[in-house]
Specification:
The chain has helices at about 15-35, 45-60, 85-105, 110-130, 130-150, 155-175, 180-205, 205-210, 215-220, 230-235, 240-255, 265-285, and strands at about 65, 75-80. The chain is mainly alpha-helical. The protein has a single domain (about 10-285), classed as Farnesyl Diphosphate Synthase (Orthogonal Bundle). A two-stranded antiparallel sheet has the order 1-2.
């Protein structure tokens, strides 16, 4: 997971903000309690969205616990506890982070990536065994993505679809026993958000990929020539990139409208309708 799926905090009520952070802290503690301290470094906000989205559909009651965070020790915080969804997302986040490390080692093979991969290898193998059906699907999508990247594919949608299918499969694995129509809607929402994540991350990484001489679908699609002004290039393709990024967001929002209200969560709505749009605008404008 990459860490792009975030709330738009100005429009969240305080109780929703507390719940959002309780999921983040719940996932963080789930990783620590079951896997140790090191894998906690992989945690990002994409995990929180997926856990909230899945739980909003499963409609499972949540249990919270107060605790004091070592980073913010003065005020007590809340965390979600005893949640199968939180534990599941924590595990899958570690697995995707490990697979990303493998990809980094393959692409760059520097000592930092190699050392970190060796540290994370045991966690990755255990989770792969634990969720063998799902991780087999994830690995298939990652292999297809790697193949397209090696071929320097200039179809951004085609490459982004690999990551979209991963996010979709992650959601559907946990929603396996859900009513078929609802599961279908949830899968389409997850797919489009996954497609947005890959496309947004690729645009955000243009400078880095140019400096490291690495594949980026925008560079291939829009014929970037090495040595040209990067800012001018990004500005030139900004309008077309806007369509690439906003199209899956609109699709996700439109599909979410079709979901029955009882399965809608105000935090998920905030992310789909406002958070992702705010993030897109910042990415297009070069803001971090």
């Amino acid at each position: 997971m990459i860490g792009y799926i975030k709330i738009y905090s100005p429009e969240l009520r305080m109780k929703e903000y507390v719940k959002y952070n309780a999921y983040y802290c719940g996932i963080c503690h789930s990783i620590r309690n079951r896997w140790g301290q090191i894998p906690r470094l992989t945690l990002n906000y994409d995990c929180v969205f997926l856990a909230l989205f899945i739980d909003s559909i499963l409609k499972l009651p949540q249990e919270y616990s107060d605790f004091r965070c070592i980073v913010h020790p003065v005020v007590k915080k809340k965390k979600v506890v005893k949640s199968s969804t939180v534990d599941y997302i924590a595990d899958i986040n570690i697995y995707l982070s490990y697979m990303k490390l493998l990809d980094n080692v393959h692409d760059e093979n520097n000592i930092i990536h190699s050392s970190t991969e060796r540290i994370m290898r045991g966690y990755g193998k255990k989770i792969k065994y634990k969720y063998d059906d799902l991780t087999e699907k994830i690995d298939t999508h990652l292999k297809e993505m790697d193949k397209l990247e090696k071929e320097k594919c200039d179809n951004i949608d085609e490459v982004a679809e690999c990551y979209a299918e991963i996010i979709k499969d992650i959601c559907l694995y946990k929603l396996n026993d859900t009513e078929e129509q609802l599961k279908n809607i949830a899968g389409k929402i997850a797919y489009n958000i996954g497609k947005w994540v890959y496309s947004a991350d690729a645009f955000d990484d243009i400078e880095k990929d140019i400096s490291k001489n690495m594949y980026n679908p925008y560079l291939t699609r829009f014929n970037y020539e090495k040595g040209n002004d990067i800012s001018a290039f990004k500005n030139e393709i900004k309008e077309r990139t806007s369509f690439i990024l906003y199209a899956p967001l609109k699709a996700a929002a439109d599909i979410y409208e079709d979901m029955e209200d009882e399965y809608k969560d105000p935090i998920v709505k905030n992310i789909i309708y406002e958070g992702l749009y705010d993030r897109t605008l910042k990415i297009l404008n070069g803001e971090k």
